[in-house]
Design a protein that fits this description.
Length: about 200
């Protein structure tokens, strides 16, 4: 019975993702605001988006999801949590993945450019006698503070904190904490410079 129910939910979720035009925006917003654990007003979900594990999500006001974004927080192992603050914008093809017991917290006024991947868990690779896919996951968390801009094609790995007002350059791979009001880039990401403060 559970398998049949899950198939029905998957079918309708897929239909919902592909309703075109303004009517699609209105319907997706209406339905997801009532399905997500807690969700503010002015939710915009463009065509082709995939939201799974919505009962483990807490979304603020004025969230914009561009085309083909994925928000994932299913409980595969452990408790998954995804929290996104107010006035955040994700452009096309962004994946934020807390599946498998991970925790991702995104603050207010965060900008995320196309093709960014934010993943709170990682594959366990400690054993060589069995395939990696059979070793389960290492659970982690990611914290992105307020007013952060993450450039296109960046990757944010588990157990990092990105400080307030920082900028992650396009294509960067962030594997360590990022300080407040800094600009980082490269693989792995390193400090490029500190942002200039405006003095009134």
């Amino acid at each position: 019975m559970n398998k049949v129910f899950n198939e029905i939910i998957t079918f309708f979720r897929s239909l919902l993702a592909w309703i075109p035009g303004k009517s699609g925006l209105i319907i997706r917003s209406f339905i997801y605001q009532r399905c997500i654990q807690s969700c503010g007003q002015a939710l915009v979900i463009q065509i082709g988006c995939n939201l799974r594990g919505v009962k483990n999500m807490h979304i603020g006001t004025h969230l914009h999801l561009g085309t083909y974004c994925q928000l994932l927080a299913e409980k595969i192992q452990g408790n998954s949590t995804l929290i996104i603050g107010d006035n955040c914008s994700l452009t096309s093809n962004v994946m934020i993945n807390a599946d498998g017991g991970g925790k991702i917290i995104i603050g207010n006024d965060v900008l995320i450019a196309p093709n960014v991947v934010i993943r709170a868990c990682n594959h366990n690779t400690s054993r060589t006698d069995i395939p990696i896919r059979q070793q389960g996951h290492i659970i982690g968390e990611i914290i992105i503070q307020d007013d952060v801009w993450i450039g296109a094609n960046a990757v944010i790995l588990q157990n990092v904190s990105i400080g307030k007002g920082s900028i992650i350059a396009a294509g960067a791979v962030v594997s360590k904490d990022v300080g407040k009001y800094t600009i980082v880039g490269g693989v792995p990401a390193k400090l490029i410079k500190h942002r200039q403060k405006t003095i009134n």
